Amino acid sequence: MKKINIVLSLAAFVLCINSVSRCGEIPSHVSWTVVGAGPTGILAVGIILDNGVSPDKILWIDPDFSVGRMGKLYQEVPGNGTVRQYIALLEGCKAFGEVKSPAIDQLYTLHPDQAPLLKAIVDPFLDITNYFRTKVVALKDQMTGLTFHNDFWSIQTNTATVKSDYVVLATGAHPRIVRADGIPQIPVDEALDKASLASHVKPEDKVVVIGSGHSALLIVKHLTELSVSQIVNLYKKPIVYQVPMRRGIAWQEAGLKGEVATWAKTVLEVNPPANLTRVYNTPEALQTCLSQCTKVICATGFERNELPSINGDDSLYLNYDRSSGIIAPRCFGVGIAFPQQKTDPLGNVEHLVGLPYLRFDALIEALNEDL
Ligand SMILES: Cc1cc2nc3c(=O)[nH]c(=O)nc-3n(C[C@H](O)[C@H](O)[C@H](O)COP(=O)(O)OP(=O)(O)OC[C@H]3O[C@@H](n4cnc5c(N)ncnc54)[C@H](O)[C@@H]3O)c2cc1C
After folding, report:
1. Positive or negative CA dihedral for 36, 40, 43, 48?
2. Which of 171, 197, 262 to mutate to test the pocket of ligand 1 (most atoms within 8 A of CB)?
3. Does residue 225 sit in helix, strand or coil?
4. Is the CB of 34 under 6 A from ligand 1?
5. What CA–CA distance (Å, rounded) separates 364 from 51?
6. Helices in 165-245 by DSSP H: which ranges?
7. What phi and psi, each to the nearest 5 degrees, are found at residue 282?
8. Is the C-beta atom of 354 inside 6 A of ligand 1?
9. How does pLDDT run along the chain (371 residues), one tens digit per residue?
10. How far apart are CA 351 and CA 34, in angstroms?
11. What domains are there in the chain, each with its CATH number?
């Protein structure tokens, strides 16, 4: 009997460290809840801590705590951010300074202008995540319900219901897919990794890549370096490059940068390989290309991960304020799920999703009002 009790206590302990990191009770009411532990969620928790909110009043929810999609799928992808930008991001948050991390030390050994593989920023974020999980109330779970009632938010997960004064949704997005009946599609997440893409293609393949952003052109670049018979890039928008203006400020912030920008400028636009063509994407061009290809990769952007409706109303997510990220009273959307928009002086609208360009102004304003 004693043995069974020991086994049961051990199992309860393991369950406890698995689901709630601080290993205490989940409070019934917190000040701030951050849903999502991708890069944006990590930054949001750091900003809330920096603004003086007590860690035991911060609830942080994620089913994995492994730096979101970037941590799970894009570690080996060449990033478009520079070491200088990542260091600025880490140094911009006081709470990150508490973390002892060999991965952060490693970042400082790289050349500031280098645009490294995303692993270079994922590893520091993972160390920060593990530290924050011991500090705030971190719940390894999925948010399944969100309602606003009597002036506070009620957040449901599979295992708990918690009231919160403020909610930050940093819940991420997944790649869009296109309908291409009968033609094998290579998932964009797998195509972004060259080694994984190599396992999907054969020398006789004719591959259509749809899209003209960073992901699409990185995949086209990978394909030109692999052995495939033909590559067709279906694009809708011209290639746009980011142009640095002065430190930290860039023209066309969402434009191509890093390794992909260099390749597009020096190879794709001036001397593309003979097996690569670029075709303007119309419904007819799409049909023709699909009828002639053997594989298709859709890299046309991301769509928000599904969220529980707020008080039964989905339209609040669609109508969030594009300049501040405000979804509803004291409810903020941040990161790739709720990209903020910026209009450049020529009137072009950009979505700001790169880490250096994320804006938390509305959150910080609310934190200052709260104190
Ligand atoms: C190929 C590629 C290269 C990129 N390169 C760069 C780069 O070099 N530099 C740069 O700055 N940016 C880059 N980006 C953009 C950047 O990676 C993304 O904008 C960023 O990773 C998105 O982070 P996020 O935290 O908003 O979302 P995600 O990383 O998607 O994280 C969302 C998290 O929320 C969790 N979640 C979702 N729903 C729930 C729920 N209901 N309950 C609880 N948790 C939930 C998920 O499990 C996940 O952990 C790149 C993106 C891609 C695709």
Report:
1. negative
2. 171
3. helix
4. no
5. 8
6. 188-191, 194-198, 214-225
7. -120, 165
8. yes
9. 445 454 444 444 444 445 666 656 899 999 999 999 999 999 999 999 999 999 999 999 999 999 999 999 999 888 878 899 999 999 999 999 999 999 999 999 999 988 899 999 999 999 999 999 999 999 999 999 999 998 999 999 999 999 999 999 999 999 988 777 788 999 999 999 999 999 999 999 999 999 988 889 999 999 999 989 999 999 998 888 877 666 656 666 667 878 889 999 999 999 999 999 999 999 999 999 999 999 999 999 889 999 999 998 889 999 999 999 999 999 999 999 999 887 776 677 777 778 888 889 999 999 998 65
10. 22
11. 18-174+303-370 (3.50.50.60), 177-300 (3.50.50.60)
- Helices within the chain (DSSP H only): 2-19, 39-50, 68-73, 83-91, 102-108, 119-135, 188-191, 194-198, 214-225, 258-263, 283-292, 315-318, 361-370
Tally the residues of the chain.
371
User: Which residue has a Cα nearest atom 27 of ligand 1?
Assistant: 172
Q: Is 142 in the pocket of ligand 1 (CB under 6 A)?
A: yes
Distance (Å, whole) CA 155 – CA 144: 8
Alpha-carbon dihedral 67, 298, 317, 256, rounded to 10 degrees:
70
Ligand 1 atom with the shortest distance to the CA of 355 = 11
CB atoms within 10 A of CB 361: 11
pTM of the complete model? 0.86
How does 62-90 read in b/e, with b if 16+ C-beta sit within 10 Å? Answer: beebbbbbbbebbbebbbbbbbbbbbebb
Q: What is the CA radius of gyration of the chain?
A: 22
Residue nearest to atom 4 of ligand 1 (CA): 79
Say whether 137 sits in a helix, a strand or coil: strand
